[in-house]
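> call design_seq(struct)
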């Protein structure tokens, strides 16, 4: 079997979902299984300085094989998968020489991956697609990136004729809950810059992302027998509905694109006495981002003003910021990646990330870190898939970036 495919299948079958309700790092004990496996695999391929710290961060080094003042560059990927969809029991399906039509993922559930709904499928006709079986997500976000980095390092070790400087590798937990870079040791990593392999379709090269915040909304009601409730009951579910209705109906993920921001309710759970909601707030522009947060709090304040106590409580926390302001002074790292893509016949797609990446937080911690495609599509659900050929291109791109960096700075 293709070694990249074999490695990817091995990694995605490991349940490594993170948990936003946990205060541990990693947030789930099951993430340790893949973290330890990655350490073992790095050692097997011949990497140096392989270690796993107390928080599950895995680091390794590929020493330089040439002289010269070549910058140390890094490649980073996260090994957790989202808690927003089932990630237990992943059973990947391989579809060789895809015919361009419908792929039945799960006949019993009538789940079909169709180009009628996902038109980008058509461009992968003739490729090998790896999909779910309709019961789980796939986990290409970001085990595709992990696999590509691992395979690129193995290739460089087997091909010493490719000259390169010192390369650092980092694999981390909890990106999917916004904490992937929180305990990443930038000083110990010691790279001049790095790339996260955490994008989607081939050619993506991203150095702009949302400013992001998360907000937990707690509504405390009063439960009274409905027959005697007049003037006494406070139905937290009705207040939750009022709260949700206060936001612009078009400023939601399903109605926005490009640089447009949004409010997104992720979950709601409640009874008359208490309702809890979890929101995420996103905007590319920092000023608009701050306005969104203020409006969010104002909605709660207006509701509370009608009562003699705080009925709606908001716990809001910034998650990450737009890395553009940290990358723009270092655009040479974008130039190298763009040139490497063109050398491989890949058309660069420089666009904003409508989401987040560990690279955003790392950039603000002093490690400029744009994001590169890993090849997967339709993340976080049963329709997720990745073309095998796209992962190979990502692996080749890592090798080419390493090679071009050495060529540029060895002169």
């Amino acid at each position: 079997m293709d070694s990249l495919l074999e490695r990817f299948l091995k990694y995605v079958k490991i349940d490594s979902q993170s948990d936003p309700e946990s205060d541990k790092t990693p947030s789930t004990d099951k993430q340790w299984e893949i973290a330890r496996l990655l350490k073992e695999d790095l050692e097997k391929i011949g990497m140096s300085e392989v270690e796993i710290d107390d928080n599950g961060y895995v680091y390794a080094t590929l020493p330089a094989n040439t002289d010269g003042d070549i910058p140390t560059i890094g490649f980073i990927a996260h090994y957790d998968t989202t808690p927003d969809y089932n990630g237990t029991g992943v059973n990947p399906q391989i579809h060789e020489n895809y015919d361009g039509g419908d792929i039945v993922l799960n006949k019993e559930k009538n789940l079909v991956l169709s180009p009628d709904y996902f038109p980008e499928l058509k461009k992968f006709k003739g490729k090998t697609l790896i999909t779910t079986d309709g019961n789980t997500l796939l986990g290409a976000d970001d085990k595709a990136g992990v696999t590509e980095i691992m395979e690129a390092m193995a290739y460089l070790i087997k091909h010493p004729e490719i000259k390169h400087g010192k390369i650092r590798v980092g694999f981390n937990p909890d990106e999917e809950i916004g904490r992937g870079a929180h305990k990443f040791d930038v000083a110990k990593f010691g790279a001049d810059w790095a790339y996260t392999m955490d994008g989607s379709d081939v050619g993506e090269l991203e150095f702009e992302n949302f400013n992001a915040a998360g907000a937990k909304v707690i509504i405390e009601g009063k439960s009274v027998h409905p027959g005697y409730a007049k003037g006494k009951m406070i139905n937290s579910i009705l207040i939750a509905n009022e709260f949700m209705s206060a936001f612009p109906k078009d400023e939601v993920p399903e109605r926005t694109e490009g640089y447009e921001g949004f409010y997104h309710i992720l979950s709601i759970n409640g009874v008359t006495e208490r309702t809890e909601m979890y929101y995420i707030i996103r905007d590319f522009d920092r000023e608009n981002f701050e306005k969104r947060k203020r409006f969010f709090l104002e909605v709660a304040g207006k509701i509370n003003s009608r009562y003699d106590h705080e009925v709606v409580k908001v716990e809001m926390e910034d998650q990450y910021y737009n890395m553009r302001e940290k990358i723009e002074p270092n655009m040479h790292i974008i130039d190298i990646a763009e040139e490497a893509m063109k050398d491989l016949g890949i058309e660069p797609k420089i666009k904003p990330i409508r989401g987040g990446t560990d690279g955003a937080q790392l950039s603000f911690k002093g490690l400029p870190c744009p994001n590169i495609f890993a090849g997967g599509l339709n993340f976080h659900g049963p329709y997720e898939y990745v073309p095998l050929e796209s992962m190979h291109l990502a692996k080749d791109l890592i090798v080419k970036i390493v090679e071009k960096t050495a060529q540029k700075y060895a002169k």
